[in-house]
Amino acid sequence: MIVRGGTVVLPGAMPVEADVALEDGVIAAIGPQLPGSGEEVDARGLHVLPGAIDAHVHFNEPGRSDWEGWETGTSALAAGGATACVEMPLNAHPPTIDGAAFDAKLAAARASAKVDFALWGGLVPGPLERMDELAQRGVAGFKAFMCDTGIDDFDAVDDDQLAAGMERAASLGLPVLVHAERPSELRPMDGGDWRAWVASRPPRAEVAAIERAIALADAAGCSLHVVHVSTGAGVAAVAEACRRGADVTCETCPHYLALTEDDLERLGTLAKCAPPLRSAAERDALWERLKRGQIALVASDHSPCPPAMKEGGFAAAWGGIAGAQSTLAVLLHEGAARRVPVAQLAELVTGAPARRFGLPKGRLEPGADADLALVDLRAEHAAEPLDRHRANPFAGRPLRARVVRTLLRGETIFEDGRVAPGARGRLLKPERSHP
Ligand SMILES: [Zn+2]
User: Fold this and answer.
1) Based on the number of CB atoms within 10 Å of its own CB, is 116 exposed (0-12), middle (13-18) or buried (19 or more)?
2) How far apart are the CA of 407 and the centre of ligand 1, in A?
3) Most-buried pick from 21, 50, 241, 435 (CB within 10 A)?
């Protein structure tokens, strides 16, 4: 197959018009006017990106597939131009904290995933031998919570437990991911509205937890990744540690880059997440840090729930935003408005997460998996949501980035608003992580 005449987006370069030849599921060549006698895809006027990788999704299956599920969650990913994801150990039941739970998760994923996937294991209080079982089965790393998770089958770790888990992860050659909010800096909600929610989880709780996690990871010799950072000061703490030579990176999410407290007021509990949406100044600070290369990657933190769980006000509602389908489009739309080059934006959801977590994905070069996203950046478009509940802060929002077609290992898995019924993802095992 030849993808003909698209604007090919390569890391660190100006996008150039070129053809991409695909053969046996891998990229065979990239260049002008490639010869071909087989199927042709007309990509003129479209941008051709590597398939995106969403390194932070919760599909909740097995156990809570009424919240989401592998089929619907990965359909949303495919529709958003993603060809791979790394799925979180919570909020499935059982949570992915030992070998048996990994096997159950893998069976569910293999039965219905539309894109390739890797799995995060959980780092929770209890026997560390479970981390060995997870590593043997091929987890990409371990996720830990430094504060309450909001769900009763996945416990937070204290500093001692986190330190011990980090030592174990280091010995296994795998990274630890932390949800960084310091419990001692969190406050009970004073009221039930959005203001009370925001006030209960101040920026200093995030920054204090990040600083603590960096110190613990340093001592353990552990590779650290801080998920969903919501503040400029949080990113700055990570950047400062990097300058000292620490093996630490961070991600942020489309909702922190595109939404603010004003949206929280407008959208209500649909936009409740932790850490909460912040001020416009904080959002702008994240963009400045992103432009300087201090944010390693962007991921959705897709964490949906049944609509009924978003009722009952800000104290009771589930804290999670659904957004697996819109990560790439939101990033391209908002980034263009802030004059960030397309190649830099694309890298944040393709090559960067792949390199950081040792996944054999995210490259547009001969020999790499033929994973492509064909995107129209010329006109605004509101995509039809394909996730289970179709309720998220970006649903119906016109974005100047429309995913036209997604290819996984050379097969079209999304086109004309539909996911191919035969699309089937595979388990990805990490090679090793790189700072
Ligand atoms: Zn999450």
Assistant:
1) buried
2) 26
3) 50
